[in-house]
Amino acid sequence: MEKTLRGVGVSHGVAIGQVRHMGTAVLEPPATQIPTEDAPREQARAQAAVEAVAADLVARGNLAGGEAQAVLEAQALMAQDPELMADVSRRIAVGSSAERGVYDAFAAYRALLASAGEYLAGRVADLDDVRNRIVARLLGVPMPGVPDSDEPYVLFARDLAPADTALLDPTLVLGFVTEEGGPTSHSAILARAMGVPAVVALPGAIEVAEGTVVAVDGSSGDVLLEPSQEKQDELRAAAAARKAALAASSGPGQTSDGHRVPLLANVGGPADVPAALENGAEGVGLFRTEFLFLDDSAKAPSAEKQVEAYRKVLEAFPEGRVVVRVLDAGADKPLDFLTPADEPNPALGVRGLRTLLEHPEVLRTQLRSLAKAAEGLPVHLEVMAPMVADRKDAKDFAAACREAGLDAKFGAMVEIPSAALRARSILQEVEFLSLGTNDLAQYTFAADRQVGALARLQDPWQPALLDLVAAAADAARVSGKSCGVCGEAAADPLLAVVLTGLGVTSLSMGAASIPYVRTTLAKYTLAQCRRAAEAARAADSAEEARAAAQQVLSGE
C-alpha cells in the first residue's frame, strides 16, 4: 500500500527504484587475551591497518576532488590521531588483540566526543566509520559501505559517511535517504555537488525493507513507499518536464522584469570547476581554500602550491567574479599546526579569522599567493574572511590584505549574529558581505548543523534567520555595497526568490542547483520577490514561512 514518509529534502530531483541498505556495521571483536610476547606483532598489525585505511581515504579523496577531498582527508587525519594510536598501543600492551584495542580505544574517544557538546558530537558518525574500516581490515571481512549491485537502486542508511558519499556512482545510485544528518551536513553538501537526489533526517529510514520500491523527492523531502504505477508515471513525467525546462534555461540570473542576480558556484578547488561551467555559473561565490591545507595537517602548503591551485580556478572565469574565502580552520576542520587540540568547545573558540590573526604568517602567505595567482588575469578577485564578529575583525583583515599588496576587494562573511546586527559598522572597513547561512543558522539557534534531530532549527526558512539576512542586506544597500549569500540556502529555488526580495545581490550554491534557481527566479518580478519575502518574515515558523511565500507567488 502506498505510504508517504517525510524527511528533509537536501538535493533536487526525483529518484524511483528499489531500496538497498548500506553494509552492516562491523561486529564487536571478541575480548580475548593475547600473550605478552604477541603484543609487538599486534601493535604492528594495528598500525598497518590504520595506515592502510588512511591511505584509502586519501585515495578516495583524490578521486572525488573538490569538497569531498577536504572531508575525506580530514577523516584520514582522524584515523592517524596520535593520542588515539597511543591508546590503542597501551591496550594491546596489556593483553588486547589489535582489533579489540582499536575498538575499545575508539569507543572511549567516541564517548568523549558524544559528551563534549553538540558540535563535536556531530563528528561521531565520521569516527565510527573510521573505526569500522580499521576493524574490518583487521578481521579480514568486507568493508562496510555502499552495497554491490549491477542494477540501479536507492540507497538507504542510518547515516552516510563522507567516504561513502564522495564516491557514489550516480549511474547506479539513483538517490539516497538517511535517518540521521541535517540539511547542512557533509553528506547533504556533497549530494548537492553531485546532483544526486537526497533526503535526510527521515525517521524510520533503516526500517524500510530491502527491495521496497520507493520514490524519493529531493526537493520536498517526501519518500513514497510502494507508489502505484500511475504515481510513478506522474512523477517521471514531472521530472522530465523539469529537466527539459532546465535544459532550456540559460543566460544570467535575473527576475522576469530584468533585475540581475548573479548566480555563482561554491567550489572546493579546481576539480569542481567543470561542473560550475557546465551549469552556467557566472563566477565563484565561495572558493573554500581549506581543502589545500588538509593535505598535511602538520604544516601549511607552500606558497608555490597555493599559487598553482588558486590560478587554476581564477583562469576558469576570465573577467568573471571569483570570491575566495581565506582559510577557515578550527572546529570540525582542525589542523595540527594551527588549531589548539584542547579547546573545550571549538565551535565557540579560536576558529576562522581568529585563528589566522593568531598566526599572521599563515594569512600573509595565503594573501600573497592569491595576489600572485591573479597577476595578469582579467578576473575580478574578491577575498573574504570567515567568522567575522565585529568591526575590529573586519579592520584587522582589511589591514592584512593591504599589507600583503592584494589588488582585490576585501569582504567579510556574516556567519555570527553580531555581524548581521552590526553589518553597517563592519561595512565601514570592507567592500562587501557574504552570508554563510549554514553557520549563521547554527549560531542563531544554538543548533549544531551536523545533528539531524535539530533539522527544524537548521532550516534556512526560519523567520529569525531571514530577519538577520534582511538586516545585513539592508546595511549593504544603505552603504552602496553588495551582500551575497554563499550558504546552502541559496540552493533552494523558492528561498532564492525570497532572498532576492530581502535585498541579496548575488546567490552562490553547489553547481547542480544553478539551473533550478535560474529557472525559478526568472518566473517572478522583483516586486513579487519582495512580497514573498515580507510574507515569509511575518510567519512564526519555517514551515509557515515557506507556505506564505508559496501562497504569494502562486497568486492565491
Automatic annotation (TrEMBL):
User: Where does this chain mainly localize?
Assistant: cytoplasm
Q: What GO terms describe the biological role, i.e. biological process, of this protein?
A: phosphoenolpyruvate-dependent sugar phosphotransferase system
Biological role stated in the UniProt entry: General (non sugar-specific) component of the phosphoenolpyruvate-dependent sugar phosphotransferase system (sugar PTS). This major carbohydrate active-transport system catalyzes the phosphorylation of incoming sugar substrates concomitantly with their translocation across the cell membrane. Enzyme I transfers the phosphoryl group from phosphoenolpyruvate (PEP) to the phosphoryl carrier protein (HPr).
- Residues bound to phosphoenolpyruvate are R288, R325, N438, D439, R449
Q: Where is the active site?
A: H186 (tele-phosphohistidine intermediate), C486 (proton donor)
**Span of domain Phosphotransferase system enzyme I N-terminal:** 6-123
Q: What EC number(s) is this enzyme filed under?
A: 2.7.3.9
User: Which cofactors does it use?
Assistant: Mg(2+)
Uppermost EC category:
transferase
What GO MF annotations does this protein's record show? Answer: kinase activity; metal ion binding; phosphoenolpyruvate-protein phosphotransferase activity
| Keywords on record | Cytoplasm, Kinase, Magnesium, Metal-binding, Phosphotransferase system, Pyruvate, Sugar transport, Transferase, Transport
Entry annotated with the keyword Transferase: yes
The similarity comment for this entry is: Belongs to the PEP-utilizing enzyme family.
The protein in question is named Phosphoenolpyruvate-protein phosphotransferase
Residues the entry annotates as binding Mg(2+): E415, D439
Cellular component per GO, a single term: cytoplasm
